[in-house]
Amino acid sequence: MKKGEMHPLRIARCQHNLTIVELAEEAKVGASTIWRAENYYSINAESRRRLCTFFAMSPQELGLLGRAKQDPTFEPKHAKAYPFIEPCTPVYVAEKVPAAQLLALSEGIV
Question: How many other C-beta atoms lie within 10 A of the C-beta of residue 4?
Answer without folding.
Answer: 5
